[in-house]
Design brief:
single chain; alpha/beta; five-stranded parallel sheet; 13 helices; binds 2-deoxy-2-amino glucitol-6-phosphate
Length: 369
């Protein structure tokens, strides 16, 4: 087993460190930065259909649903197609309005999640086109879908999803650019710029992993907390949700992810000196707004841990602990900001003596509803 873990103490840690490679594998043969072109062979036969669709509905559960929320930002931003993101378990039991002009994207690491499969079947009956995003080749979901794109992250053994999540986000990024390209919503020069940057993301993830020692120190400081809040804005919000889910799953600390601006509508009541608040506070369009949210937490003596852009000055003046990630276009922020949060929950869980790879009550794939 030690061999299988490649010298790491746990599968989860191995899988976290695999991400520069898994993301590169996911992009291989699909992006052409010099030409400003994205190719997705798996959905090619629907290239024309993409020009006329009215709406995209993303269905998924858990971490895959968080990837879906990132996808919503990207598809709306670049392809300008309205997107709805639904929990498969809720979607299947409603009477949703679905037409032949809808594309349903089902996201699943395992490809065997019962609720996601049922949601696909229902949408198919109502005439939608189904695209699957899956990590396991030949699983049920790719077989149920009309077309799809594999994430190619390699087998994920840790029950808490890490590399599968970032690969799902990568595929959704590629899909957003592909749809934008098919619909003429983006210029070639803009695509050249974005794809050139995307190509550098695996190296930047490698750099983000180098903060491991600092993250371990921060983990030591907050490992005994009973609660933890994760806040972000824009596509930093699904990153916050995913950070909170990881911490809950493996360390059993109660954690919540929230859009930072929603804090004052309720969760702010929880803040005192015992409450660690993890902010996604990178330099992007919401930077200034996040800074004022940090001030609100500090004014109530909360403990602020901030994920910041390399070289940040402003947040460092306020936060108790800062973890740096490399600068990147806002489109790729979720891919980078997720890395320190994975490491944070990993170290906290190890320090608390938890079974990181097989947390209590959880299964790798939920094949019952
Ligand atoms: C992730 O850490 C979880 N254990 C869980 O939320 C998972 O993402 C969810 O059950 C969906 O699984 P799937 O991607 O295989 O469909």
């Amino acid at each position: 087993e030690m061999l299988e873990k490649g010298g790491f103490d746990h599968f989860m840690l191995k899988e976290i460190y695999e991400q520069p490679r898994s993301i590169r594998d996911c992009m291989r043969g699909r992006i052409y930065p010099e030409e400003g072109k994205v190719q997705l062979g798996g959905i090619k036969e629907f290239a024309d259909k993409l020009k006329n669709i009215d709406r995209i509905i993303i269905v998924a559960c858990g971490t895959s649903w968080h990837a879906g929320l990132v996808g919503e930002y990207l598809i709306e931003e670049y392809a300008r197609i309205p997107v709805e993101v639904e929990y498969a378990s809720e979607f299947r039991y409603r009477n949703p309005i679905i037409t032949e002009k809808d594309v349903v994207i089902a996201i699943s690491q395992s490809g065997e999640t019962a609720d996601t499969m049922a949601a696909i079947e229902m949408a198919k009956e109502r005439g939608a086109t189904i695209f699957g995003i899956c990590n396991v080749a030949g699983a049920s979901i790719p077989r149920l879908s009309h077309a799809g794109v594999y994430t190619h992250a390699g087998p994920e053994i840790g029950v808490a999803s890490t590399k599968a999540f970032t690969a799902q986000v990568t595929v959704l990024t590629l899909m957003a650019f592909y749809m934008a390209q098919q619909r003429g919503a983006i210029t070639t020069s803009k695509l050249i710029e974005l794809l050139t940057e995307l190509n550098e993301i695996p190296d930047k993830i490698q750099t983000a992993l180098e903060s491991n020692d600092i993250i371990k120190e921060v983990s030591e400081k907050i490992k005994d907390s009973r609660n933890c809040l994760f806040l972000g804005r824009g596509s930093g919000f699904p990153v916050a949700l995913e950070g909170a889910l990881k911490l809950k799953e493996i360390s059993y600390i109660h954690a919540e992810g929230y859009p930072a601006a929603e804090m004052k509508h309720g969760p702010i009541a929880l803040i005192d000196e015992e409450m660690p608040v993890v902010f996604i506070a990178t330099q992007n369009s919401s930077y200034e707004k996040v800074i004022s949210n940090i001030q609100e937490v500090k004014a109530r003596k909360g403990k602020v841990i901030a994920i910041v852009t390399e070289g940040d000055v402003e947040v460092k003046k306020m936060a108790d602990y800062c973890i740096e990630i490399p600068d990147a276009n806002e489109a790729f922020l979720p891919l980078l900001a997720t890395i320190p949060l994975q490491l944070l929950s990993y170290h906290i869980a190890v320090m608390r003596g938890c079974n990181v790879d097989q947390p209590r009550n959880l299964a790798k794939s939920v094949t019952v509803e």
